[in-house]
UniProtKB/TrEMBL annotation:
InterPro entries: Glyas_Bleomycin-R_OHBP_Dase, PhnB-like. PANTHER family: PROTEIN YJDN-RELATED. The keyword Methyltransferase applies. The keyword Transferase applies. It comes from Chryseobacterium taiwanense. Residues 4-113, 122-248 form the PhnB-like domain. This is 3-demethylubiquinone-9 3-methyltransferase. GO terms for molecular function: methyltransferase activity. Keywords: Methyltransferase, Transferase, Ubiquinone. One of its GO terms (biological process) is methylation. It holds the Pfam family 3-dmu-9_3-mt.
Amino acid sequence: MNNDIFPCLWYDGEAKESADFYCTVFDGKITADTPVVMNIELFGQKLMLLNGGPHFTKNASVSFMVICDTEAEVQKYWDQLLDGGMALMPLDSYSWSKKYGWVKDKYGVSWQIFLGEKASEQKIIPTLMFIHENNGKAMKAMQLYTSIFPNSKIGNILKYGEGSEGHPIPEPAENIQHAHFEINGYDFFCMDNSYDHPFDFNEGISMVVMTDDQEQTDKYWDSLTSNGGRESMCGWLKDPFGFSWQIVPKKLIQLMSDPDQAKAQKVVQAMMKMQKISIAELENAYNS
């Protein structure tokens, strides 16, 4: 499984508590424990939890589909995630799954718990909801993402015109009710939705992409920020749909983790001044 691509969840101080909670619910493990960054592994998949402060709150424009093998498994996750949280769609039998529910947990993270077949060994699948001015652009987004990253493809697509009934708001027939795509071997789902939700994509949930070198860093950065995307600080950017990515050279993590605290700190200081990360400038700071 590709752990060079993974989600990052933004917290205001409760990343550690949340990491413990998810590791309990999903029988995972904590792989990095620092005051700012917690890394956890659930079903062999990496998730990063970032204590970034009060600036952003997570919302259901990005949710996590958990594909389960048995009804008992669905029930087990549902009961724990609902504790202190709220149901967005009740746990029930639907046309697409015998047992399915959508829940927002006590930390503001949304989960779709689903009894069904896995397309790959990836059990937790980030699901992007294209709403407001992005509604109708899910197909365009999949085409963009799969054109940028290697080992990428668009999988099954279900359009509203072909889909199940029961939508409170009529959706355009050509819009995507549910689709699967892969970037560099990492699975995503996406959908269009014309409901006027009180939220949209923000930095509360982003995707981290670890890069091997400057060439790869430049390619991903330039491709995602062009045509209406925008650069932010410290390797963060927004793509043309307003979805946030962090393009992070592996070298940055290596230099920041140096046992020589003074050198590591110089690297962090240099990184804080950058938009796109320059490996050469990080190395200069490290050696200065």
